[in-house]
Amino acid sequence: MKKINEILSHLKNSPEFRKINTQKTIQDFIELLPATLKKGVKFAYIKADILYFVLTHPVYKMEFEYNKNLINTLLKKYPPIEVNELKFFVTNKREKKEEKKEEAPFFIERSHGIFTNYITDEKLRAKVEEIRAIIKNS
Predict the structure, then answer these.
(1) Given pLDDT bands bounded at 50, 70 and 90, which one contains residue 87?
(2) Cα 54 to Cα 87: distance, rounded to the nearest angstrom
(3) N or C, which terminus of the chain has less Cβ within 10 Å?
(4) How far is C-alpha 60 from the chain's CA centre?
(5) Which residues pair with 90 in a beta bridge?
(6) What's the pTM value of the predicted model, to 2 decimals?
(7) Phi, psi of 137 (to 5 degrees)
(8) What are the boundaries of each domain within the chain?
(9) CA gap 25, 32 in Å, rounded
């Protein structure tokens, strides 16, 4: 019986999943970048031996252009990615954040508000009577 990590490594090394491996390698490379650059990367991809970085803001594009030599140096030291050129651009599309709809809990009251109130303290007795009125109205 094979272990799950053996199966996953076999799948990872098969040629059908080369694109997944490339994407994982690019993601690992992004993790090598300095924190100031890493924050600005939305995602990256390789097309025709050019590594494209899709950035989140135009300021990051300027920062990446300024640090292009640093990124090229890191690429030369990181062997799995072989690219000839780097390009940076900012996406025009904004991310849509889904609004979570919180539904009010709906339940049917099973009580009918029929009980005897033995409380002698007037404040507490008044509160229990308010609760009884709410139960009867629902």
Answers:
(1) very high
(2) 9
(3) N
(4) 20
(5) 55
(6) 0.60
(7) -75, -25
(8) 4-90
(9) 11
pLDDT range class, residue 124, cuts 50, 70, 90: very high
d(CA 97, CA 101): 12
First to last CA, the chain: 60
- For 4-90, CATH number? 3.30.300.180
Of 118, 119, 46, 57, the closest CA to residue 82 belongs to: 46
Task: Give yes or no for residue 12 having a pLDDT over 80.
Answer: no
Q: Distance (Å, rounded) from C-alpha 129 to C-alpha 16?
A: 71
pLDDT (tens digit, 9 = 90+) per residue, 27-71?
Answer: 999 998 999 999 999 999 999 889 999 999 999 999 999 999 989
What's the average model confidence in pLDDT over 115-134?
Answer: 90
Collapsing DSSP to helix, strand or coil, 1 comes out as coil
User: What single letter denotes the amino acid at residue 119?
Assistant: I
132, amino acid identity: R
- The DSSP code for 121 is S
